[in-house]
Each structure stands twice: as structure tokens, then as C-alpha cells.
Write a structure and sequence with these properties.
Residues 59-144 form the Methyltransferase type domain. The chain is of the alpha/beta class. The protein has a single domain (8-247), classed as Vaccinia Virus protein VP39 (Rossmann fold). 36% of the residues lie in helices and 20% in strands. It has helices spanning 24-27, 32-50, 69-74, 132-141, 161-172, 183-192, 208-214, 217-229, 233-236, 248-253, and strands at residues 57-61, 78-83, 100-104, 117-122, 143-151, 195-204, 238-246. A seven-stranded mixed sheet has the order 3-2-1-4-5-7-6, sandwiched between helices. Helix 3 (69-74) links the parallel strand 1 and strand 2 (78-83). Helix 4 (132-141) crosses helix 6 (183-192).
Length: 254
């Protein structure tokens, strides 16, 4: 299937919500000292939350950006990157590594039996799929042990997103709209699927665009450390990276 979208950016609710983050243009957002530092923070959070599941079989949904698959492969996991189209495989296309497979299909109805993978991950997608509750439910359905996702909260810097989107676009030159969600909403959806939170990390208290424009990773790290010391990351840190595990009753039933 060939996918063509205006300016290469899928609107919220598009069936190809994973296309934009898989592009070379999007990957350039994480190049240079500031971009590499931002990505390293996400990778650290991912590895921390995935540590209880060594050698896991992982389904990374919408993972054509390679931000999840690459470190998990490095850590010895078997990873299947699942995308909405061949184009959306993006940074994973042509990549051959032991333990890596890629598959293509609809994001909204994953073509796998219940509990097919130890861990299911999805980054950069939940804020763009439209019916995120149904999407998160699908991730839980095919997970045997845990799901790890990122999502933007409505508070903190994101509270001003509707007002500042134009300014952010002028500063960054490359951005897209997204939907936010609250922790209670996320936890309720997970609970319905039989999952309970195991840990979460609020990544940045300051807007990511501020760190990009500072272009001084050491300074950014010090600023965020001071804000974490005040525990502001617990209420304002975003995007949140969250791990939820299937509850013990569900594990026994499986």
C-alpha cells in the first residue's frame, strides 16, 4: 500500500498515525547535541521500565522511528516492529539484525492472537491515533506480561499548546498537533484490560522546544535535575513513559 499525505503529516485519527515519526525529516529532530540528549532521556526511561523483562519478545507498534527497537535489540530482546504501511517502517526499512522482524498492517486491529508477545511498546503514537482508548486496549490484548507507552499529559507546558502551537511551529519548523490525556484516563483504560501500573517517568518539565533551542545538553540536564529535585516531574513531566503489567489474576488465567 502506498501512502501519500499532505506535507507527509497525518492528522489526529489518521490510520497512518505512525507515518510522520518514521520519516527522515522527523529523525532530524533528534540529531545534533540537543536532539541526541532528548532521545537519550527517552532511551534511559525505556530501558529502566523494560529491565524487569530480560530477553522478552517485544512488539513495537508504530516503531518505524527505530527509537525503541534499536536499544531493545542492543539489550538482547527479540523485537517485531509493526507499522501501518511499508512507508511507515521508515528508519527500519532495509535494516537486518538478529532478533528483528518487521510486519505491516492496521494499527487499530492488530493481527495477533491474545498474549502473543511478552511486552508490547508504542512510542510517538498514542497522542495521534484518535481513539487512543481502543488502541491502548489492543496493545494490552496482545501482551502477555506488560505494555510500555508514552503519552503527553494535559498539564505543564502542554496546557498552553493550543495557544502556542503557531509559535512552536515557527521555532521548530517541524511539528504536528497532538491530543493529551490524563493519568486517570490512562489508568482506567489499563485497568479495564487487566493491567496495573508498575512505574512511570515524566521526561521533561520544560518544553522540548526550549531544550532544542538552548542546544546545550549539559545545561538542559542541570535544569531538569533541579526541577526533578522539586518533584515537579511527577506532575508536570511530559511525555510520560509508563509501564503497566498484566495483573496476577490475569496471568493465572492465561
Amino acid at each position: 500500500m502506498s501512502v501519500v499525505l499532505a506535507e507527509g503529516v497525518a492528522d489526529i485519527g489518521s490510520e497512518f498515525a505512525d507515518l510522520d515519526p518514521s520519516t527522515d525529516r522527523y529523525a532530524r529532530r533528534f540529531q545534533g547535541p540537543a536532539g541526541e540528549w532528548l532521545l537519550s532521556c527517552q532511551t534511559k526511561a525505556l530501558r529502566c521500565l523494560c529491565a524487569p523483562y530480560p530477553g522478552a519478545s517485544v512488539l513495537d507498534v508504530g516503531g518505524g522511528h527505530a527509537q525503541v527497537a534499536t536499544p531493545l535489540l542492543d539489550d538482547g530482546h527479540e523485537v517485531c516492529v509493526y507499522a501501518s504501511s511499508q512507508e511507515a517502517l521508515g528508519q527500519m526499512r532495509g535494516l537486518h539484525r538478529p532478533g528483528l522482524t518487521t510486519e505491516v498492517g492496521p494499527l487499530r486491529a492488530l493481527p495477533y492472537a491474545d498474549r502473543s508477545f511478552d511486552v508490547v511498546t508504542s512510542f510517538r503514537i498514542l497522542a495521534h491515533v484518535g481513539d487512543w482508548q481502543a488502541f491502548l486496549g489492543e496493545l494490552c490484548r496482545v501482551s502477555r506480561r506488560a505494555v510500555i507507552v508514552d503519552f503527553p499529559i494535559a498539564s505543564g507546558a502542554n496546557a498552553l499548546e493550543p495557544l502556542l502551537f503557531g509559535l512552536k511551529k515557527r521555532l521548530e519548523g517541524d511539528t504536528r498537533r497532538f491530543q493529551t490525556m490524563s493519568r486517570p484516563q490512562i489508568l482506567k483504560t489499563l485497568a479495564v484490560a487487566g493491567f496495573a501500573p508498575q512505574g512511570e517517568i515524566g521526561q521533561f518539565v520544560l518544553p522540548m522546544v526550549v531544550h532544542r533551542k538552548l542546544a546545550r545538553p549539559a545545561l538542559s540536564a542541570r535544569l531538569e535535575a533541579k526541577l526533578r529535585a522539586l518533584r515537579l516531574d511527577r506532575s508536570l513531566g511530559t511525555p510520560v513513559v509508563l509501564c503497566a503489567a498484566r495483573d496476577s489474576a490475569g496471568m493465572r488465567a492465561g
